[in-house]
Design goal:
There is one protein chain. By secondary structure, the chain is α+β, with helices and mostly antiparallel strands. It is built from 16 helices and 9 strands. It is about 50% helix and about 10% strand. Helix 2 packs antiparallel against helix 16, helix 4 packs antiparallel against helix 5 and helix 13 packs across helix 15.
């Protein structure tokens, strides 16, 4: 933001060749910086203070760890500073216009969801596009890293990792965490032993979800059947259910209750779970991939959203929007993670390409960005906007955001 060519307090010309690396531990603020002063290149560390006198207040003048400081940057120059051997350190006074501080106050002190909402319209389209491309890759990397971490926790079992990732995706945000806990609570091998019996699969999943309790007087015949099956299987495998209270129902329509999603999860296991190999075989082709995610409910769950709670005949399969979300949050990250883990960049790129081909996610966060003039024509862009909002706006990381950085830099140059 200060620019590349500056002038020290003694009038010497200063050029920043490399700012070095931010040091979050003890010692100077930036390490391994490269600067050029009056035609001579220097490599060393950089220390930053509000007041130059803070150098002495912090005891750096007698600390040999700060003898490698090649540049001292201050906002207020109230004195010159020296190393422990008495040699003077080049000092730069960083000055900013009032407009910069006003923008900084807007970004760091705002209370709105998107703090730069009143200023983003002036950001050039090229800057926005470049920023969002990077954010999309960043979000894919975050999702893939979660998958790789899960893989390591599960001893390199890719199929079970895929099962846990699928379960989390079926939570569709609101119940992602409970679904992940459910999938981890029972080894996939136990479920494979009962892959030919849908009732037993549902009993295991609903029981582990904490939704089968014989002390609750539900006189539903199917519910009682699942309770009996789970009681037997839980003793056989020494299983302990999760807490029922973890499940969320707020602002959820009955057909989207977690019960129906758990029933879908049971269907993915019926006949044996081999989703990972089929995802890899489909290689990101949208038509083939959609077919993989077509699981139809049958019997009880066509007319129920909860135990002992009937509803009109519902959809037998997940809707198009739900399937697209599974492709965004399950299939694409699995392809990217599998490619990255096996040193196959083409397969990893297939995950990103799938995002480019899918329609954008529709939610309140994306709509907010669209109202501010951000175009969103595919899932790649909607994922970028979600990353921007959740990882930067909501965390107040305006100074780490390219858009926030651009706004501040323009105020320096006003």
């Amino acid at each position: 933001m200060l620019g590349r060519k500056l002038y020290l307090e003694d009038g010497a010309e200063l050029e920043i060749l490399s700012p070095g690396k931010l040091n979050c531990d003890a010692g100077p603020d930036f390490s391994n910086a490269r600067i050029r002063i009056g035609g001579m290149e220097w490599a060393g560390n950089v220390e930053i203070h509000v007041r130059a006198s803070d150098w002495y207040r912090h005891g750096h003048d007698s600390d040999a760890a700060y003898d490698s400081v090649a540049l001292h940057v201050v906002a207020i120059s109230d004195r010159r500073v020296t190393r422990s051997d008495g040699t003077e350190i080049p000092q730069l006074t960083a000055t900013f216009p009032e407009s910069f501080f006003n923008m900084y106050a807007t970004l760091c002190g705002g209370i709105s969801d998107i703090r730069c909402a009143g200023d983003v319209a002036c950001i050039p389209s090229l800057i926005k596009t470049d920023c969002l491309e990077s954010l999309a890759v960043e979000r894919m990397h975050v999702k893939a890293t979660r998958i790789i971490d899960e893989l390591q926790n599960l001893g390199g079992d890719w199929e079970r990792t895929c099962f846990v990732t699928l379960a989390r995706a079926l939570g569709f945000g609101l119940n992602s965490e409970p679904f992940e806990i459910l999938a981890r609570s029972i080894p996939l091998g136990y479920l494979h032993r009962h892959a030919d019996n849908l009732v037993q699969l549902e009993a295991l999943l609903f029981g582990q979800a904490g939704m089968l309790d014989t002390s609750i007087h539900i006189f539903d015949e199917y519910y009682q059947l699942l309770c009996r099956e789970y009681y037997f299987l839980a003793r056989k495998y020494n299983l302990r259910p999760m807490k029922r209270e973890l499940w969320k129902y707020a602002r959820t329509r009955p057909q989207n209750f977690p019960h129906r999603r758990i029933a879908v999860l049971a269907k993915t296991l019926y006949g044996g779970f081999s989703l990972l190999s089929r995802i890899l075989a489909a290689a990101g082709e949208i038509g083939k991939t959609r077919e993989l995610l077509h699981w139809e409910l049958e019997g009880y769950w066509l007319t129920h959203s909860d135990f002992d709670r009937e509803q009109p005949m519902g959809a037998a399969a997940l809707g198009t929007g739900s399937v697209d979300l599974l492709m965004i949050n399950l299939v694409a990250p699995i392809l990217y993670a599998h490619g990255a883990a096996h040193g196959d960049p083409e397969k990893a790129e297939t995950g990103l390409e799938l995002w480019r081909q899918l329609p954008p996610e529709r939610n309140m966060y994306v709509r907010q960005w669209q109202q501010l003039g951000f175009e969103c024509g595919d899932a790649m862009r909607s994922q970028a906007l979600l990353q921007l909002r959740k990882q930067y706006c909501d965390s107040g990381r305006c100074l780490d955001c390219r858009l926030g950085h651009w706004l501040l830099r323009t105020k320096v140059n006003d």
